[in-house]
Amino acid sequence: MAMSRALQLSREDLLRAYRQMRTIREFEERVHAEFATGDIPGFVHLYAGEEASAVGVCMHLTDKDAIASTHRGHGHCIAKGCDVHGMMAEIYGRKSGLCAGKGGSMHIADVSKGMLGANGIVGGGAPLACGAALAAKTLKTGGVAVAFGGDGASNQGTTAESMNLATVWKLPVIFVLEDNGYAESTASGWSVGGDAIKRAEGFGIPGVRVDGHDFFAVHDAAGEAIERTRSGGGPSFLHLKLNRYYGHFEGDGQAYRRDGEVAGLRAEIDTLDRFRRRVTEAKLLEENDLAGVDREVLALIEDSVRTAKSAAAPKSADLLTDVYLSY
Amino acid sequence: MAMSRALQLSREDLLRAYRQMRTIREFEERVHAEFATGDIPGFVHLYAGEEASAVGVCMHLTDKDAIASTHRGHGHCIAKGCDVHGMMAEIYGRKSGLCAGKGGSMHIADVSKGMLGANGIVGGGAPLACGAALAAKTLKTGGVAVAFGGDGASNQGTTAESMNLATVWKLPVIFVLEDNGYAESTASGWSVGGDAIKRAEGFGIPGVRVDGHDFFAVHDAAGEAIERTRSGGGPSFLHLKLNRYYGHFEGDGQAYRRDGEVAGLRAEIDTLDRFRRRVTEAKLLEENDLAGVDREVLALIEDSVRTAKSAAAPKSADLLTDVYLSY
Amino acid sequence: MSKKSFRQAINEALAQEMERDPRVVIMGEDIAGGLGAPGEDDAWGGVLGVTKGLVGKFGRERVLDTPITESGFIGAAAGAALRGLRPVAELMFVDFMGVCFDQIFNQAAKFRYMFGGKATTPLVIRTMFGAGFRAASQHSQCLYPIFTHIPGLKVVIPSSPYEAKGLLIQSIRDDDPVIFFEHKVMYDVEEEVPDEPYAIPFGEARFVREGDDVTIVAFGRMVSMASQAAEALAKEGVSCSVIDPRTASPLDLPTILESVRETGRLVLVDEASPRCNLATDISAQVAEQAFDALKAPIRMVSPPHTPVPFAPALEDEFVPNAEKIAAAVRSTMRAPSKQAAE
Amino acid sequence: MSKKSFRQAINEALAQEMERDPRVVIMGEDIAGGLGAPGEDDAWGGVLGVTKGLVGKFGRERVLDTPITESGFIGAAAGAALRGLRPVAELMFVDFMGVCFDQIFNQAAKFRYMFGGKATTPLVIRTMFGAGFRAASQHSQCLYPIFTHIPGLKVVIPSSPYEAKGLLIQSIRDDDPVIFFEHKVMYDVEEEVPDEPYAIPFGEARFVREGDDVTIVAFGRMVSMASQAAEALAKEGVSCSVIDPRTASPLDLPTILESVRETGRLVLVDEASPRCNLATDISAQVAEQAFDALKAPIRMVSPPHTPVPFAPALEDEFVPNAEKIAAAVRSTMRAPSKQAAE
Ligand SMILES: Cc1ncc(C[n+]2csc(CCOP(=O)(O)OP(=O)(O)O)c2C)c(N)n1
Ligand SMILES: Cc1ncc(C[n+]2csc(CCOP(=O)(O)OP(=O)(O)O)c2C)c(N)n1
Ligand SMILES: [Mg+2]
Ligand SMILES: [Mg+2]
């Protein structure tokens, strides 16, 4: 633990990591609250609790790197640099949204930032990440691609196919399994036969299992994996054990969880709390620094909701645009 | 080797094994020859060289057990008890064929015998085998199901999904990977990343690797796996290394193979030769017994071709039947 | 007889058929839910609660939760159907057909034909479809025209709770593969539904309403839209027949033709994307077989050729509704009829 | 200009576009072949030799053999298209779409719309289709109506070597996802094809033949069948226009409508299964927009609603041909025209 390379991050980087994780958390908490008012339409899947994954991985990436995300995509978007105002507006279905209100929560994307989209299809992202990796390899950009996927997605055939393709094509792609213990109401302990690391190895990809609530552990493991993959070592695999704080989607009663399960998680292994303790105990940051970030993030989210709410909906004519280049 | 349980098979069983393997070989050699005359339409994939797999596995099965096959299905059909005359007539597209001439080589089936069909879709059979296993389990028939698939098929997402499903549903299904070194013109050494046994283990299924030209080894390994699976031990996996003697399909020039590759295989590790040597050296069967089988098989195949050639084609009205139960 | 929601009607049909026939099993993602989890069993009963309670009645051997591997378990349902079970598999949203279509259209749909009539595949796939849920492009499609295109499949699109129960029971008893489409916006719709089991035969259209001037054909959720339109038009003095074919495959063309021969005017309402959809399919069949009866151009009411948008305003604009149907009907009344032209 | 086969025309289009634009890569199962094997490299050049020689010219970095994982590599092609490549992926037989359709219709087709116009996906999927090869139910389908149904996809069906080259070049230069259909029975058909690259724009139908009495619309291999029928009919004094729309999506409806306005009679030829196919699609659009011009029922010539049978006699019976087309044309001539009825 004490040997974490991430603990040697610059003050600036630590603050960035905290800011991103806090932004994700705040974003999700706020969307949760706003959803309850009935203002937000559609299916919304919140990422709160899983922040260390998106941030711990994406901190190693730049715009020349790509990620493919999941239905639970807000965290990945923020960590990959998507505009928070654009995201919030999108979730509200506004014309000013990142996808002009046509995508919504499940399809937020910013290809210019290498964020290839949240994805409504479980397992849909892994082949796309392979493609982004292929493009990087062929065009010799030095870029890598990351495929995020859940424990449920890890069973989909597309995941297996992508892992094999990555191996035989020697693609610079990193598979990140965000194992939050459930796919909808079904426990991963039941649905995932065998062992995720062995599976990856069966496809020729070395893997490591990491505590997904420990930003430093994730950052270290992701750094190593991405470095190895970026330098031509072939695909890598990370198995992150973590937890989601909310239901599968907003509206889920979560009868499948133990009473107090989430309260316990929040109290005991919360990613942000642990980060905070760690950096303050090690005197890398002051409480003050963190509180400052908290305030700024709160203001940012508040502003994003306020502007999203008052933003214009798309117009009738927008229905017929963006199908093809010609219309 | 000397400890093979299969060597303790009864004389009758040994003869049956030999007869089936010889029937497959003769069937395929003859289809190869007939195809060259232009009389046989369509895509035909020959199983010659791989006989020990179909027979070594299916000898442990009865009609209450099911198998799902591949595009290279003739061997599986014969080993699972399909009528040879009906098969040959089907390949010729005759009304008297097992599928009334509507299926052809790639779709020969006899569901009543538990042969759920050759399959034109690579990887298409594994889910079906899981279904047959589920039916056996639910209806408590004591049956098992076998999914045959090639090295190419082993990469398809359906294979991975089926393995996982078999594990989590504890299905009585045995996955048999017939690794003949090629998927079309592509070597399995290139296309299959990682390791097949490790993959199966990654999905929670124990596996063994077996010399697929050694009937005794296959029979032993299949026997153990099927026994274990039948008695409630969950799914099993067999990785058989073997070779095909003809092109991917009839018409394939096989430029991807080493000159003399097949001639070498035929000379050195031919399944039937090895079987013959083994049983005669151990004095389990006489040359005479085997020669008798050879003659009978030859006559059977000859007759099947003769009757198929002179059999009637389906009639116009047949085009419109068998789509639904009502027409 | 009592008021039941579309959801309850389906649940009851499943329960009654499972009761009647031990070979009927149901499977799907979270159709019971809570497997391996520390909380309640049957925690979900399906993503929208449609299968709730069935695991309590029939146990985990017949109510099978699955991993998220649609090819795997829908293929397994097809294989099991070949071997004596009568599986009802749930493809949660029909939008997910792209990961498992092979097992449906190349396997289940073709067994009987490819095997020369020697196989029977009593498989039902229940699936949710349709727009209106603000669920965006990958969770709002109809796609039944794709299934209708495939020989060997039967395609059922119930338009009300009563229809849903009777058609689902028929689907389960039917020996061919059936795709059963449930409109996600309709689950809470209620009507009187008999308590006892009953089966509605396939290929028999239902007259929702009879009228003299225009025939309107609509499927699923669009049937009630068409009825609303007919109601409004009646006040304008335009009298419409509304026909619900119930099954897209087989299609009860004779009933449609008969009605068109009486009215001479046809409006087709289809919530699916407009190219190669059911509206075009029926229009073409009518134009071929009852051309002489037509007094005006056949009109189609479908969404535009775009993915389903997320923003509520756009989605509302996208989906056909009573107003658009009424406008189409009016346009066929205005169109110079052949008689008029003579 | 020289005689080239359909196969050569496609090969040449690929070679010239790969030459012109380094971002064009091709991928598919055995499109070069021999990978990892002890024999020759480029051992296959595609299952029917269409891509032969390209790996020699462009190397293994741009000619990518793939494992048999269509979701994996077609999805990768879609992802790569988002990130600067212009991939041409081969789906060997369109019948295999069932294992990878999601990556095509939910991913590639919808990126642009779902992402609010901020994504471009220059992806081409080449695929073999059609009956006549004795390849049975799982290797003989058309299925282009399914792709035409999906907003966001462009669907191209070349009818000759000349068309194939020009349309494939356009497909590769196009910035939207394109599905390019190659009829497997046509690979050896030859005609004069220019040596230099040329692009045929999408959505512009081609008049194969002009006539006064009846308009015949046909796609792909059916275009030559329609021409043969027209030839035969000319001898009977019936003069037909034959229109090849070239692309099913976008569809050049104006040209078809214009022709129908002149002839008043329409026969649609579609090798795809009859329900919800292109014949019904075009019929419906014409019946809606040029109803007044129609003198007789629109006739459709399609196979029956059955899987493709294996036996040669059945398959020959299954596929539309010149005779069946001619019979349909004759029936529209016999049908009491509106004028006649007046
Ligand atoms: C192909 C497909 N099948 C099913 C679904 C419905 N679905 C959406 S999310 C989900 C669970 C995914 O679980 P997991 O991959 O573990 O991700 P998590 O929700 O836990 O982040 C399911 C079944 C879908 N969207 N796509
Ligand atoms: C989904 C799908 N993709 C591609 C094909 C074309 N194809 C038929 S057989 C084959 C090779 C299969 O290789 P393998 O599984 O090793 O079986 P083998 O032919 O060696 O017995 C391919 C690519 C197919 N039939 N189905
Ligand atoms: Mg999960
Ligand atoms: Mg092989």
Total of DSSP H or I helical runs spanning 4+ residues of chain A: 12
Query: What gyration radius of chain C follows from the Cα positions, in whole Å?
Result: 20 Å
Beta content of chain A:
5-15%
**CATH structural architecture of chain A:** 3-Layer(aba) Sandwich
Using the coordinates shown, work out and report the CATH topology of the largest domain in chain C.
Rossmann fold
Helix content of chain C: 25-40%
At the first level of CATH, the class of chain A is: Alpha Beta
Helix content of chain A: 40-55%
Question: What is the element string of chain C, with H for helices and E for strands?
Answer: EHEHEHEHHEHEHEEEEHEEHEHEHHH
Tally of separate helices of chain C: 13
Instruction: Report the CATH superfamily of chain A.
Output: Thiamin diphosphate (ThDP)-binding fold, Pyr/PP domains
- Overall pLDDT of chain C: 97
The fraction of residues assigned to DSSP E strands of chain C is 15-25%
Q: N- to C-terminal separation of chain C?
A: 53 Å
Uncertain spans of chain A: none
Biggest sheet overview of chain A: 5 strands, parallel
Described by the principal axes of the CA atoms, the overall outline of chain A is globular
